[in-house]
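User: Sequence for Fe2OG dioxygenase domain-containing protein below. Tokens please.
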Amino acid sequence: MSSESSPLRLPVIDFSKQELKPGSPQWDSAKHQVREALEEYGCFEASLDRVLEVRKAVFGALEELFDLPLQTKQLYVSDKPSRGYNPAVSGLHEHIVIDAANIAENIERGLTTTLWPHGNISFSKTLVSCTKLASGLEKTIRRMILEIFGVEKYADELIESTNYILKVIKYEGSETSEPYPAAHFDKSMITLLYQNEVNGLEIQNKDGEWIHVNPSPNSFIVLIGESLNVWLNGGLSSTFHRVIKKGINTRYCVALFATPRGGYQVKVPEELVDDKNGPLFKPFDYEEFWTTFYTQAAQGNYGYDLKTYCSV
Ligand SMILES: O=C(O)CCC(=O)C(=O)O
Ligand SMILES: [Fe+2]
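Assistant: Structure tokens for Fe2OG dioxygenase domain-containing protein:
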């Protein structure tokens, strides 16, 4: 297995067309490309021209946010673990995680007025529009994937039981080549990433090669998480990825994790199970998994994964 970054480009699939409606020729063509990209790379770039209208504002807003004094950023707390403000890890990486970010109020009142008590309308508007674009795109992609597996009848139920978690990340300039985060699978169903011009993300293809991702300014990077892998009874691999940021420029990234909502039982559909292929996973509740995850982590087991948690 090579650990070198390869100059390969991820497939780019265009989602900009307004008439992208299920059943239309444009839809079927994009769906076909999604299938091929996932088979080959387990990942792709989804281009959405509308995001260019907010690009400058998004990274301006992130800069404004992370430039706030530490004491101000620390005011944004959450009663759920790993949500809220997380200070710089080894001085290089800090992030803020917002739960149920598709509800505008959680950004407008939950985040913005905590950080700017007198309000900051342009910050809220920018983050809300970016989240709207990303969650809309995620729904389209998820529906296509369900169609590919012939289980689209579950699309509404699955999408309605989604918690969209927004994570905004700053990677400080440094010359280190240590991966952070280290190689991992996301636990989400699908993750969408939108970054500034500073690269660093690498994804591993099915041959074990690390591909250095160099996305276009109008592209979201689409990753498959472990929840979707489990729900499809192992039918789709999740994307193994890491970040190695080189150079002194600051990298900003917006990550939208589409995760199952707590209280919803994620269960492999009966259509994906037959006499030959039994269910590989037991039904699970995403938030209960995290409770076990943190218990394991407290005992020193940091690599506990969702597939281990719910495998039959
Ligand atoms: O910054 C990135 O591009 C990816 C971050 C990531 O993988 C994560 O937060 O799970
Ligand atoms: Fe990740």
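The chain has one domain: 5-310.
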